[in-house]
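Weekly structure sync, notes
Attendees: PL (lead), two postdocs, one rotation student
Agenda item 3: pending single-chain targets
PL asked that the sequence for the first pending target be pasted directly into the notes so everyone works from the same version. It is reproduced below exactly as submitted, 157 residues in total.
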Amino acid sequence: MTEKTAPRCFYFGCWNTPGHYTFCPGGRSARNCLDIELYGDGAHLDGTLAPRKDGYHGGKLFWCGQGKTEEGRQRLRYDGAECPQGHFLRHELDNGFTAIQWWDRCQGDTRGGCNSTILLEGSHTSEEMLIAAKEHFPEVLANLERGGVELVEVKLP
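Predicted structure, written out during the meeting:
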């Protein structure tokens, strides 16, 4: 009988200081991880998976990663506003990870554009992603709690 290995889990965001980086459980920096940070047609995780509201068409939800090119993603970035902190979307990425991402100013940087991402290898439900976040990155969740932010899944229409 072979032993099943646990899926790898990472956090992308600020770790008590400004700057978005990828971290292993416990806060150890993950090095050389573009295979984790890039998905689709070369899109980078940083702020492209978190929900935004369209300012032109009645508040429709979208995410910048829906743009097929960097130019398209930039255009989407300027077409809407960030959803409230803690509101997240779940994505199954083509790099082999499931991700949840939300806007987050509780991790050491309060500027606009700050976001946090939990990545778990394989295909997972939102509930499984939240369990992985609690297990592997309790510090991130504690910072959210101190900031009065709750993780809430939002769904695209």
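Discussion points:
- The mean pLDDT is 92.
- The two ends are 44 Å apart (CA to CA).
Action: rotation student to compare against the earlier draft before next sync.
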